[in-house]
Design brief:
The chain has five helices and six strands. The protein has about 150 residues and is an alpha+beta fold. It has a six-stranded antiparallel β-sheet with strand order 1-2-3-5-4-6. α3 runs antiparallel to α5. The longest helix is centred in the middle third of the chain and has 17 residues. The chain is globular, with a radius of gyration of 15 Å. The relative contact order is 0.18. The mean pLDDT is about 90.
């Protein structure tokens, strides 16, 4: 458990993303089903910046387990659909997660980024291969390795 999650539990603060899943702040939601929810980031780093979160609370990329693999594939498919709906070619876009302690909310959230970044600094925040950011394909590969006998 991260220190942020511990502090929020100690202070009885609910997870902000769980609050969104429960329907308490639906103003930015653009997709929802029983497994996941998508909404616009409140501080977009790029022309299109959408977050996709699982409906069930999963803390971070560090707590994702092999049974979550199919959910991640479903999140990827929805991300690619949303990018196309917003006029982007998916191969020119970024899909990934911040790695604790570099995440801001302790609820797994996939960053779906398309188009031009607002600044070079914001672009760097979502660079694959950095210690603070993991591409979705890398997370899926890590889980595939764990699932091999």
């Amino acid at each position: 458990m991260s220190w942020k999650t511990f502090l929020n539990k100690l202070l009885c603060r609910p997870c902000v993303f769980c609050e969104i899943v429960q329907g308490n702040t639906l103003d930015r939601v653009i997709f929802q089903d029983k497994d996941m929810l998508a909404f616009y980031d409140i501080q977009p780093a790029a022309e299109t910046h959408i977050l996709i979160i699982p409906a069930a609370h999963i803390e971070s990329v560090k707590t994702v387990q092999p049974p979550d693999y199919d959910l991640l594939l479903k999140m990827k498919a929805k991300a690619l659909d949303l990018l196309k709906e917003h006029g982007h070619q998916p191969e020119n876009c970024r899909l990934g997660f911040h790695i604790p302690p570099f995440n801001t909310v302790d609820h797994l959230h996939l960053h779906v980024l398309g188009g031009e970044f607002k600044t070079a600094l914001r672009s760097a925040k979502y660079e694959t291969g950095k210690k603070w950011y993991m591409d979705l394909s890398q997370l899926l590969s890590n889980l595939e390795q764990k699932m091999r006998p």
